[in-house]
Design goal:
Chains A, B: This is Bifunctional chorismate mutase/prephenate dehydratase. The structure is a homodimer of 367-residue chains. By secondary structure, chain A is an alpha+beta fold. Chain A has 13 helices and 17 strands.
């Protein structure tokens, strides 16, 4: 029954539903139109192409940035970007969906990263190792691959970086996945907790929360969060800080979560492909630079980027393999390798480095 | 460059992108409006309610059925239903998202079923056992739970049904998840395969495919597909039929998949909640009927449904517990317990049964 029109009156449910039904009909009609236009993009020689033939990461990044720019609520950017990724994914997959290799088994963070980046209208291939992800993309069995490269508790995943020393694959995207911390315990209530186990890094991540909610609890550092969860399993007054999946593994319950102070606690993944894509307007370039062991070599390699106004986001050195090279550096720079400033900087770096490989230029991760 | 307007000419890419950009802008504006209206539904006493307070499965089912009815391509029903589930999920989660318990760890089919039914804008709680899923929903730590109840290779999951013998929870939804079969092998090519291992049921599911692509291969029945995958690991001329996740576990590759003949190879899940919801227009009712061991008892219990034109989709008997009851039957009937025909039938059944429990009336699974 409609209520009197008082300012706090609850709106008439039936009326609201009629409005929503009308909106849904329009959304559906627009999605239909969008799918038709996407077919037009995918039509080569009058035949509908496989998704890999017309997938353009730089174009997708531009579309999503526009979504974020236009957004003035009530939904947040992350949710809207997810909805548009799914719409694009569905439109792209009309003929033959993208095949994406990832570090399996199903349910890993890598699989989450695949869906976050490519949407759900893809064919996922869970693989047994990072090496196999590279191989399957190289062999063409997968169109793209997704591998973890950095995470906030373990740092850089060296085995991923090392694959680039020999692989010809290109980086054509990055994905950032938030990692959430929970307070896990077999106890039922927060008030019962007198000790908390966690890796020092996890304590640091949840400092403000612990100060507010467990100011008197003893904080006991352990070598890994899994180790902390194991210990918490044996006591009624103990808890551990860990990801929610540890709750299932160790038979604990989440008393609170997410409890990390900063929402930017993330794992970073790289998207591997066989070719480089054009600039999207906000890109990052990953370089592998081999240099000779001589005084000032690194300085000479880095100077050109500073000179051309390009900022370095990350540098990671790798020990030398005898004979081939003495040092290798993985360097991330803001910008795209096809842009003028980067081109000029790369030319100059070339003079001082033994070899410079552009591993990829790709859109900076969105939401 | 725009081409001449020949019938087979590829449309101008820039033009198409302008069209798509305009469509995206409209879709985004409509999603914004939808989210605003959803807030209106969720506003109780001028304050935005938690999702669980205004989640209505029967309404969602109606919205999705309308999406399917309206659909005339090019996207298929399943993809469109997924997009609309995500849009509804995002709109619902604006204040506090639904908390959904499921049989963990993350990455299981149960988690896939959760996302399929509730979209991704929820808070998932991976739990260690089916029993725990029931407990967490009963205790109110989870708003809903999702548990498997039947799958096409193993049949009914008795432990799930048995929970209803003592639990007060209600079934308020069902989810059907397709399960795909792959041909897994360590060999690189289909031509090398001379033997295929699989559970007899899996052979039956892939009969047409095997006849077409591996007519000469020897078919060797094994006790489980996992066992077949293990055997295939040891030979270059052998393959196994199994789900894709077995590829990672046993270090095999998929030579082909999905290879099942019928696309309706599914696992069925139940959604558990604490209350019953009104009819959606196309519902199923699950009953638990305890009957005395006397001649014709089952016949008398089933007759009223037939009489009132209600079809039975499924019946499953459970052995008796001494003293309490002699036989229990789980029965699924088309229709909703609040509808007249079902009401009358239930009244009549009551006369012959020792006890009749309505476990739930819920929308039939969509796409």
């Amino acid at each position: 029954m409609p209520q009197a029109n008082a300012p706090e009156a609850r709106p008439d449910l039936a009326q609201v539903r009629v409005q929503i039904d009308g909106i849904d009909q329009q959304i559906q009609d627009l999605i239909r139109q969008r799918a038709h236009w996407a077919q037009q993009v995918g039509k080569a020689k009058g035949k509908l192409a496989a998704a890999v033939d017309y997938y353009r990461p730089e174009r997708e990044a531009q579309v999503l940035r526009r979504v974020v720019d236009r957004n003035d609520g009530p939904l947040n950017d992350e949710v809207l970007v997810r909805l548009f990724r799914e719409i694009m994914s569905a439109c792209l997959a009309q003929q033959e969906p993208l095949k994406i290799g990832f570090l399996g088994p199903e349910g890993t963070h890598s699989q989450q990263a695949v869906y976050k980046h490519f949407g759900h209208s893809i064919h996922g291939l869970p693989l047994a190792s990072i090496e196999e992800v590279f191989q399957e993309v190289e062999a063409g069995h997968a169109d793209f691959g997704v591998v973890p490269v950095e995470n906030s508790t373990q740092g850089t995943i060296q085995s991923t970086l090392d694959m680039f020393l020999t692989s010809k694959l290109k980086i054509c995207g990055e994905v950032e996945l938030r990692v959430h911390q929970h307070l896990l315990s077999r106890a039922g209530r927060l008030e019962d907790i007198e000790r908390v186990y966690a890796h020092p890094q996890s304590f640091a991540q949840c400092k403000a929360w612990l100060r507010q909610y467990l100011p008197k609890a003893e904080k006991i550092p352990v070598s890994s969060n899994a180790d902390g969860a194991k210990r918490a399993r044996n006591a009624d007054d103990a808890a551990a800080i860990a990801g929610i999946s540890a709750a299932t593994v160790y038979g604990l319950k989440s008393l609170a979560g997410p409890i990390e102070d900063r929402p930017d606690n993330t794992t970073r993944f790289l998207v591997l492909g066989r070719e480089l894509f054009p600039p999207s307007g906000n890109d990052r370039t990953s370089l592998l630079v081999f240099i000779k062991d001589q005084p000032g070599a690194l300085y000479h390699v880095l100077a050109p980027f500073a000179k051309h106004g390009l900022s370095m986001n990350r540098i990671e050195s790798r020990p030398g393999h005898t004979g081939l090279w003495q040092y290798a550096f993985f360097i991330d720079i803001t910008g795209h390798a096809q842009e003028d400033a980067m081109r000029r900087a790369l030319d100059e770096v070339d003079e001082f480095a033994q070899e410079v490989k552009v591993l990829g230029s790709y859109p900076v991760a969105i939401a």
